[in-house]
Amino acid sequence: MVTDQRALPRSAIWLAAIWLAAIISMAVPGLLWWAPWSLMTSLLAALSGALLFTLPGLAVLRWLYPGPLLWFERLAYAASLSCAVIPFLLLVSEPIGWRWNSLAAWLVMIIFAVLALWPAPQIRRLARGQRRLIGWMAALLSVAVLAVRLFAVRDVPVGLFGDSYHHTVITQLLIDHGGLFRSWQPYAPAVTFTYHYGFHAMAAWWHWLAGMPATQAVILVGQVMNGLSAPLIYLLTARLTNSRLTGLWAAVVVGFLSLYPAYYVNWGRYTQLAGQTVLPAAAVAWMSLIDGALQPRRAWRTLVAPLALAMIASAGLAFTHYRVAILAICFVTAYTMAAIGQLWPVGWRWFGRLSGVGLLGALGAALLAWPWLWRVQQGQITRMAAQIVTTDVETRNPIALEIIGAAFQYGLFPLAAIGLASLLWQRKSGGLVLGLWAGLAWLAANPQLLGLTGQGLITAFAVLIGAYLVIAPAAGAGLLALMRLVALLARQTQRRMSAPMITIQIMVGLLVVGWGAQIQAKMVDPYYQLATPADLKAAAWIREHLPLDAAIFVNGFPAYGGYVYAGNDGGWWLTFLTGRRTNLLPMAVGFEATDPPNMLRLIAEQHQAIQRYPIGSAETAAELRAHGFRYLYDGPAANPPGEYLDPVQIDAAPFYELIYRQDGVSIWRIR
Fold first, then answer.
1. Is there a contact between 463 and 441 (Cβ–Cβ < 8 Å)?
2. Domain regions of the chain by residue span
């Protein structure tokens, strides 16, 4: 074994890189061939994506966080912050009428590069050795996670399931308008835009930098954010537990063991993922601010930079996902409680100082987000939120046992329990923070447990699928505790990182990565793909053969208690893909004001009138004609199953004429 402390990290880095590549190539055949080829053929997209997810955050950190961080930790922090900074640019440009395009986007990236890199920042460097090794291990692991996530969607033409449709529409509208917009035309008769837009801003910005279509930008930004979960969980865990090794194991857990957030790709749950991408930046900023405020000898002026950083990250989170912002509030509350508990009894001077910076941080974030918050009240979101808060509805927030099981799949429950117990046994405040955070988040989702209303403001489902933010750090601590137990049995001390112990951890980590990579690479479930290649081919046929004013009736069903109607096959995408009117709108329109104001009710009445009788009946054909529809469309997908448009009935009825049938897609003209 190598014993020289300076030689050990370098040799271990090369050894880990070689073995990681070997393990990944065996676990995911074809990945190592696909990755370099994709990089070469999409060099501009790769370069612009790397700049987009780093330079804005690096520029902010350069001026507001000059403290010591590993180079990898600074990049991870910057990636999280970048997703908060970009939405700001769209918000501040709207009042002055600035419209974004490719040239403007590249000029701003150059400005960010100057702010981040020149003049050379005076940053205190951390010691080499073990920390250097951990930084490189985390970097290699993050690259592997990102590669597997992108490999999984290499053949996906458009985003999966229902949410991906409105995410793509919003991204395209941002591109078409060069920034924020109000009218959803030509895709929907909505006249406000109040939906959280941080994710879509990143997708639109990537389009301006690389020219990729909105359909691909949505998928790629979603998977990049999915891949960023590994370095960001590392960053959050290392900061919480004061242990980079714990952070490294937490990154292994979220990157290769945890079902979430990888499974989000099947739902198109990209906005919640975007919020959880910004959350670590907000959490770390607030931790630094709270720790500084609890140092009574620290001058107030030294808190200005961390205060500004907390404001920026918090406001960016408000643009990105409203419900995840509630989770962030729960985290800050938990961390504050733990910090006060450690110093108890806290004098009035300390408590007043902490309260003061907390109030300033909250007010500053609210002021930065105020233009957007003012805009939000013009739609339906505030009305719906007020109704939830003032109404006691027990059935609005069901808790599915399978969702709980999925959050703890692959042995994460015992690992998390061991890790949490280990942290508490070591009297590390991170264990207390994680426990309090989980408890507060659960109470926020289930206020009825405290006799309060507001159940559904943040759903139990949203909390459970985001629970990896707590589970991964705890499970990472559990894995490290088991590794230390092995070291103890091998008569190694817990504090001295010897070569055999490093080797054991690398080998165990590689085995976990190899096993998990097979699962992660197959995460995309075709069952959730509504728009298939056959639908895209049929859409091209429609653009060529059907008139622009053609109205097409597609499969739809009532969602969210009948408040909106959703599609269950590729017909839902036809308005976006062909420009032809259908009977369905993007679901996010349910949060907006429409013209006419009762549009959602009219659509529901329209569906009820048409679907009152079987599709093959004369009554249904008459209703279709009365509502202006001249064509029917049925795609090969069916999720959920039991579609209203039955090809057998339609073919047998004399009211319809088949004009297209290929690869499971059928189109009929209504006679």
1. yes
2. 7-526, 532-670
Amino acid in position 444: A
The Cα 226–Cα 162 span in angstroms is 18
CB 181 within 8 A of CB 173: yes
Single pTM value for the model: 0.93
> Which amino acid appears at position 152 of this protein?
A
286: Cβ–Cβ under 8 A, 6 or more apart, which residues? 310, 313, 314, 331, 332, 335, 361
Q: What's at 93, amino acid-wise?
A: S
CA pair distance 244, 144, nearest whole angstrom? 19
Q: Containing H/E element for 590?
A: none
DSSP string for residues in 623-663 = HHHHTT--EEEE-S--SSS--S--HHHHHHSTTEEEEEEET
CA Rg value for the chain? 26
**380 burial type by CB count under 10 A (0-12 exposed, 13-18 middle, 19+ buried):** buried
* Cis before 641? omega within 30: no
pLDDT in the model for residue 502: 67
Q: From 90, 271, 88, select the one nearest 166 (Cα to Cα).
A: 271
Q: Residues 280-330: pLDDT tens digits? A: 999 999 999 999 888 877 788 889 999 999 999 999 999 999 999 999 999
- In sequence order, the 6+-apart residues with CB closer than 8 A to the CB of 362 are 314
Q: How far apart are CA 619 and CA 639, in angstroms?
A: 27
Spatial contact of 597 and 380, defined as CB atoms under 8 Å apart:
no
Per-residue model confidence (pLDDT) at position 212: 94
* Contact assessment for residue 229 and residue 490, using Cβ atoms and an 8 Å cutoff: no
Q: Kindly give the parts of the chain with pLDDT less than 50.
A: 1-8, 395, 494, 497
Calpha distance 212→69 (Å, rounded)? 34
570 DSSP β-pair partners: none
